[in-house]
Amino acid sequence: MTFLEHIISRIERDADIPLLREIRDGQFVSVIGGDLLALVFQARSYISQMGLTRGDRVALIAPNSIRWVALDLALMSEGLIVVPLYARQSPAELAAMMKDATPSAVVCAEEALSAEIRTRWPEAPEITLLDQIFSGPAGIKSAPFHHEDAEPVTIIYTSGTSGEPKGVVLNAGNVNHMLECTNARLHQLMDGHPEFEQVFHYTPFCFAASWIAMLTFLSRDSVLTLSTDLAKLSDELKLAAPDYFLNVPTLLERVRAKVSESIQKKGAVTAAIFSRAQKAFLPEKDGEHPLIDRVCLSVARKWMFPKIRKNIGPNLKALICGSAPLAEQTQRFFMMMGIPVLQVYGLTETTAICTMDHPQRFEPGRVGPAIRGVEMKVSEEGEILVRGPNVFAGYWQRPAETARALVGGWFHTGDQGEVDATGNWRITGRLKNLIILNSGHNIAPEPIEQVLQGRLPEAQQVVLVGNQRSFLTLLVTTASTNGLRSDRIQSAIDGANTNLPHYKKIRGFHILPEPFSIENGLLTANGKLKRDAIAARFAAEIEHLYQKRPA
């Protein structure tokens, strides 16, 4: 039975049970299994009249919703290849990706966005609005298309951090294997807990990890709640009260900053207890923590942490985090609250996942062992190589780039990493992100940025710069409503510099008034830094840092 057949069978089995729901205006809008299946058949009925041929590509541009899920299942059930795209990306970027994918049909949620795409791509095929698909007659029940392992099911575009986004072709075999692995990990996490899991989801389905998570949740005995308003995420979380959910580091950093900010507002005594408790929770290298710190940790565990944990999510068994490096201090922060953060590492080309933390055996700062059936090693150049049933078939219509990425059956990830004796991996940076000083020193920025982010939870982003310069400097944006004081930044830099060799020390910084975002073109669609774009946008500010402080 394929992953799709299994999901449809599970929905049929739970025909009278709420399986999927959205939060709208503070209320649940739910569908039972029978209703979800009816939406799938309704969409299939419409699709069958569109004149498409099995293997054709269909672009899907819409935010997460019950109907997104139904349409995705419907398209795959008809043997079509889904090309999910991020509705918040610029029309120009969307048009460029669709020109590359050459879909036979496009489905869009918004008429205005549809018109903008048509303006930038006059030769586009007919664009169907999502409402049209679900306004037609009810469909007739029929079995989904049976995919052989080698048959493509989706083309998901990379984020384009280091160039033009590429279409990653994932086949049924990739997804079949991945869902077996993700389900096995979640079985370990939820062992001994109630049969029906409560799951919350806010990351866009057009990203590989989010899509794999959605399919995993649909294949399990779970109720999946979809966020519909990121501005109300805190309220939605309280309403959904999930057992676990998928996260990106940005959200966890913001939650940590918000908690820290609220603690400061409670007064000097509370802030002092909290600060000492944090020190006592961290591993002590030189013996035992002072007694006062241990007492403060005991007090915080009894009176502070339970309230904070309840506010974040009263039923949380764990937070699952991937897509970008997570600062070790942030992971330990949530652990201190009694909420494990389980890390996942992977790329779109590896069907989203290579490694996963074990729920009962994980180490902060590491991303877990390779999943079943997957081999990983480090090349002589320090690059992580991956081989296994999770590795993609190739890039859409890019044979030369596919050949460069897949050499001898090994996928070249572009990531740097190391593995310990137990097989537990640590990701240390991106090869293409390396900063090369004019002294010849090569520096991976991510580990230093993570340390600084941990020391500056009120910062939105910290970005190390210095390529072809004689020393490193820092760009800082803030997420705090109270701004970010220069002395706080300097103190964080001084603390980080203490443990760094001379060539890695940071010798200047600049505070930027606006955070990097997708909208201003400085983050990719899944929230990763566009380092080249940042360097170009703030070239004058960077130049001033180096003129102001000679090497």
Any descriptors?
551 residues, alpha/beta, Rossmann fold, GMP Synthetase, Chain A, domain 3, 3 domains, eight-stranded mixed sheet, five-stranded antiparallel sheet, 25 strands
Break the fold down into its secondary structure elements and pairings.
Layout: H1 3-13, E1 18-24, E2 27-32, H2 33-48, E3 57-61, H3 66-77, E4 81-85, H4 91-101, E5 105-108, H5 111-120, E6 127-129, H6 130-133, E7 152-157, E8 167-171, H7 172-189, E9 197-201, H8 208-218, E10 222-226, H9 233-240, E11 244-247, H10 249-265, H11 268-281, H12 291-312, E12 318-321, H13 328-336, E13 341-345, E14 355-356, E15 375-378, E16 383-387, E17 394-395, H14 399-405, E18 406-407, E19 410-419, E20 425-430, E21 435-436, E22 442-443, H15 445-455, E23 459-465, E24 472-478, H16 486-497, E25 506-512, H17 531-537, H18 539-548
Parallel strand pairs: 1-10, 3-4, 3-5, 5-6, 9-10, 9-11, 11-12, 12-13, 24-25
Antiparallel strand pairs: 1-2, 7-8, 8-17, 13-14, 15-16, 16-19, 18-19, 19-20, 21-22, 23-24
Helix pairs in contact: 1-2, 2-3, 4-5, 7-8, 11-12, 15-16
Average residue pLDDT: 91
Give the neighbour order of strands across the main sheet: 2-1-10-9-11-12-13-14
Helix and strand composition category: alpha/beta
Might you state the CATH topology name of the largest domain? Rossmann fold
State the fourth-level CATH superfamily of the largest domain. ANL, N-terminal domain
Low-confidence stretches: none
Report the radius of gyration as a whole number of Å: 24 Å
Portion of residues within helices? 25-40%
| Largest sheet properties | 8 strands, mixed
Shape: globular
CATH class of the largest domain: Alpha Beta
CATH architecture of the largest domain: 3-Layer(aba) Sandwich
